[in-house]
């Protein structure tokens, strides 16, 4: 189980990713294959509107690894990918773009 600092860091990472890419909690849940209710609860907690008392590594690690891989790719490309995601009008298209990039990044490992 994550301790309090690790939970806070994880929630901050989620909120920063959602803000940078313009994705909703439900879109991120689909991208990272997490139950939408769980992911939205995490986002609410990251915004300070709820609390998450228990968060386990087996749930957080894949999301953290995925976001870190996407962040590294975004930084290497000068921020262009996240700007492209955010400027995509349809949520479904944005979700598909991010999921396909994440799949591509995971395949390179």
- Tell how many strands the DSSP assignment holds: 0
Mean pLDDT score = 93
- Name the beta content range: under 5%
Number of helices: 6
- Uncertain regions spanning at least 5 consecutive residues: none
Number of domains: 1
What structural class results from the helix and strand content? mainly alpha
How would a textbook summarize the main sheet? none
How helical, in percent, are the residues? Answer: over 70%
N/C terminus separation: 26 Å
N-to-C series of helices and strands: HHHHHH
* CA-based shape: globular
Rg (C-alpha, Å): 13 Å
Describe the structure.
This protein has helices at 4-21, 25-32, 36-46, 57-76, 80-87, 91-107. The two termini are 26 Å apart. The model has no long low-confidence stretch (mean pLDDT 93). 75% of the residues lie in helices and 0% in strands. The chain has six helices and no strands. The longest helix is centred in the middle third of the chain and has 20 residues, at 57-76. The protein has one domain (4-107). It is mostly helical.
Concise structural overview:
With 109 residues, this protein is mostly helical. 75% of the residues lie in helices and 0% in strands.
Features:
single chain; 75% helix; mainly alpha; 109 residues
